[in-house]
Design brief:
alpha+beta; single chain
Length: about 200
């Protein structure tokens, strides 16, 4: 009887952890430039995902580009395979010479962890391929977008609420005017709110 009870709780524990709450956050493509002799020269391109919680396993994300109110083009997919969090302080020291890079990186708020991310080698939709055209040393442009741990391979526009069984995700964006114009990303997952804020950039 005791053995059956232990098996029951083991199965219950496993089933409760199958549907972990999806991660949400900010995706950022951050080119780095140096200016030897006053000439702009690309030297690196950092692609990162910023989350409020720690990732415990490899994860796949989709990136949302706002269209009409409450609708989005979705670029998929982006993979986090290195679970070692990126040190933002080290990046800032490494690329101290690029003020634009530093200001954008320091302007991302609401996260606790940052991870290197890459374009998925297994899957990709039309919108991912468009973003790939602006990635790389010679063509990279800076942009930030909201992101969520979900695979949306369709090229169709999606709208709120976004179903991630057994969760429902809603995403709202709000522009804040100030000395630095900003954009807030408001995620709601089954009623729980998670907020991020970024400097307003092309593609944000």
């Amino acid at each position: 009887m005791m053995k059956k009870i232990l098996v029951y709780f083991a199965v219950l524990y496993t089933s409760c952890n199958v549907h972990a709450e999806p991660m949400v956050g900010v995706y950022a493509n951050l080119p780095v430039y140096n200016y030897p002799a006053g000439v702009m020269k690309p030297v690196a391109s950092e692609m990162l995902i910023f989350t409020a919680k720690k990732l415990d396993s490899a994860a796949t994300f989709s990136v949302f580009q706002s269209q009409e109110k409450g609708t989005f083009n979705v670029a998929c997919c982006f993979d986090v395979v290195d679970l070692n969090a990126v040190s933002i302080d080290k990046l800032l020291k490494k690329y101290y010479f690029d003020i634009s890079f530093s200001e954008l990186l320091k302007g991302i708020k609401g996260y606790q962890y940052a991870y290197n991310v890459r374009y998925s080698k297994q899957a990709g939709n039309k919108w991912q391929k468009i973003l790939m055209q602006s990635y790389g040393l010679e063509s990279s442009i800076p942009y930030v977008m909201p992101t969520a741990e979900i695979k949306i391979l369709s090229d169709d526009v999606v709208k709120n609420p976004i179903s991630i069984e057994p969760f429902k995700l809603e995403l709202a964006e709000k522009y804040i005017r100030g000395s630095v114009n900003r954009e807030n990303y408001h995620f709601t997952i089954n009623g729980q709110k998670i907020n991020f804020s970024v400097p307003l950039q092309t593609g944000g």
